[in-house]
């Protein structure tokens, strides 16, 4: 087998990239370890920045999003002193976010890939990358125990935090930066109307809580929990009670119902530099992780692959290598800013084991300051709706 760009991983990064390259007339193969149902079934965040909405429209996969996505022009911060709204639309030049679950995004992307003949190999085991610093890399894998091999011009590692690609960069050629937080998020999905028409991020004495949603009839709630929390100890009743204690009366009575998904996720900040090694490029969670506060994970995967698609287009159409050479620096610039925002928002809203009375007062003073300052609200709003993609990157994929 032979292809121009071999993509490892069919999550958001891999599939968005494959569909963009397909539009540009480039040949790709995507190798995915799991099956479609597994990838599509994973419950992840559901807040899309405008760059992600635009990309879906440009790729012609945005019909359901336009129908079913909920445009949110504001978001809310709650704390023991009350709650207030941040009018993102008024504070930025008209920007908003769109609530549409990552599971729905994946369904739309997989449907389009299948209809357009984008090659995806599901159940690809033992993926290995070879000759990455030569002009002729190749990739090997097995399918139902049969060995396979494909030559390619470039390999893109879109295989998430636990993938094989990042490890192919020699230790001496890369540097990792990491912060592991001393808590997790316990999340539930319920077939109940949301408690509020917009999201509520809540700093409570008892720990962080988030009221989110997937639609007008489906809610997503999170509470900060200990890392060693046993999910068995959290029947729905206990979850609802704790959520109510944290949210207080903000938003009113919470409509309760049985949860149909419940899970605990750890929080981590992680960046590896550079995002390129020879003819291997990293994109999305393979290169960086953010804590979910601020919902930047999938949107960062999208900005990476927008920049990479543009660099690959320049290479194949104009023979220009400068875009590929600049990819890592350009992507990391936006990555670090989103890392900073996610880290800051986590620090502002969570209870840390070492939160002493002084640090608690600092948190509350900062929230009060944001409440009273248009400048501070603007900082939050422009980060929340998503920072621009600098340079020329992305104009092709904007509406
Ligand atoms: N070989 C083939 N595929 C692999 C391998 C491997 N060795 N390792 C991992 N994969 C696949 C996974 O099964 C998964 O489908 O790569 C994909 C990586 O997808 P994500 O983890 O979703 O990463 P990414 O596409 O970068 O998306 C980032 O989406 O899933 C969220 O939390 C994530 O918000 C973040 C964003
Ligand atoms: C979600 O709905 O799952 C969600 C929303 C906002 C976040 C994180 C998660 O910041």
Helical fraction: 25-40%
Termini separation (Å)?
A: 36 Å
Assign the structural class, choosing from mainly alpha, mainly beta, alpha/beta, alpha+beta, or little secondary structure. alpha+beta
Number of strands: 20
For the biggest β-sheet, the strand order reads 6-5-14-15-16-13-17-20
The chain-level mean pLDDT equals 97
Shape: globular
Low-confidence stretches: none
Describe the structure.
The chain is an alpha+beta fold. It has a domain of 234 residues: FAD/NAD(P)-binding domain. The protein is built from 11 helices and 20 strands. Strands 6-5-14-15-16-13-17-20 form an 8-stranded mixed beta sheet. It is globular, with a radius of gyration of 21 Å. The model has no long low-confidence stretch (mean pLDDT 97). Bound molecules: adenosine-5-diphosphoribose and P-hydroxybenzoic acid.
Q: Nutshell version of this structure?
A:
The protein has 11 helices and 20 strands. With 399 residues, the protein is of the alpha+beta class. An 8-stranded mixed beta sheet has the order 6-5-14-15-16-13-17-20. Strands 8-2-1-12-19-18 form a 6-stranded mixed beta sheet. A 3-stranded antiparallel beta sheet has the order 3-7-4.
Looking at this protein, list some descriptive labels:
FAD/NAD(P)-binding domain, 399 residues, six-stranded mixed sheet, binds adenosine-5-diphosphoribose, eight-stranded mixed sheet, alpha+beta
Topology:
Elements: E1 5-8, H1 12-23, E2 28-32, H2 36-41, E3 47-48, H3 50-58, H4 63-68, E4 70-72, E5 74-79, E6 82-87, H5 88-91, E7 97-99, H6 102-116, E8 119-122, E9 125-130, E10 138-143, E11 146-151, E12 154-157, E13 175-190, E14 200-202, E15 209-213, E16 219-225, H7 236-247, E17 259-273, E18 276-277, E19 280-282, E20 288-289, H8 297-318, H9 322-349, H10 357-372, H11 374-384
Helix pairs in contact: 1-6, 1-8, 8-9, 10-11
Bound molecules: adenosine-5-diphosphoribose and P-hydroxybenzoic acid.
């Amino acid at each position: 087998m032979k292809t121009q760009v071999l993509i490892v991983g069919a999550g958001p990064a891999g599939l968005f990239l494959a569909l963009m390259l397909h539009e540009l007339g480039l040949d790709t193969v995507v190798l995915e370890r799991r099956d479609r149902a597994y990838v599509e079934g994973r419950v992840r965040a559901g807040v899309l920045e405008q760059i992600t909405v635009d990309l879906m429209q440009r790729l012609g996969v945005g019909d359901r999003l336009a129908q079913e996505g909920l445009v949110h022009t504001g978001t809310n911060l709650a704390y023991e002193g009350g709650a207030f709204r941040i009018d993102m639309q008024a504070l930025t030049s008209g920007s908003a976010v769109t609530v549409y679950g990552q599971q729905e995004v994946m369904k739309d992307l997989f449907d389009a890939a299948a209809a357009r003949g984008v090659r995806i190999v599901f159940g690809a085991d033992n993926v290995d990358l070879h000759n990455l610093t030569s002009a002729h890399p190749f990739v090997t894998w097995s399918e139902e125990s049969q060995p396979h091999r494909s030559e390619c011009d470039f390999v893109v590692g879109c295989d998430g935090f636990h993938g094989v690609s990042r490890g192919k960069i020699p230790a001496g050629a890369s540097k990792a930066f990491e912060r592991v937080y001393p808590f997790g998020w316990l999340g539930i999905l319920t077939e109940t109307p949301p408690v509020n028409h917009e999201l509520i991020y809540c700093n409570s004495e008892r720990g962080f809580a988030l009221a989110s949603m997937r639609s007008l009839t489906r809610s997503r709630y999170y509470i900060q929990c200990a890392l060693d929390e046993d999910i068995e100890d959290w029947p729905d009743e206990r979850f609802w009670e704790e959520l109510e204690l944290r949210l207080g009366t903000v938003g009113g009575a919470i409509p309760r119902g049985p949860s149909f998904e419940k899970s605990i996720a750890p929080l981590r900040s992680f960046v590896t530099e550079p995002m390129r090694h020879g003819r291997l490029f990293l994109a999305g969670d393979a290169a960086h992780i953010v804590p979910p506060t601020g919902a930047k994970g999938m949107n960062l995967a999208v900005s990476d692959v927008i920049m990479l698609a543009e660099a690959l287009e320049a290479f194949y159409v104009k023979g220009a290598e400068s875009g590929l050479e600049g990819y890592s620096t350009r992507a990391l610039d936006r990555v670090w800013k989103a890392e900073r925002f996610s880290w800051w928002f986590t620090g502002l809203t969570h209870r840390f084991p070492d939160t002493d009375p002084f640090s608690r007062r600092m948190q509350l003073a900062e929230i009060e300051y944001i409440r009273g300052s248009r400048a501070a609200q603007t900082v939050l709003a422009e980060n929340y709706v998503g920072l621009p993609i600098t340079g020329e990157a992305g104009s092709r994929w904007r509406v």
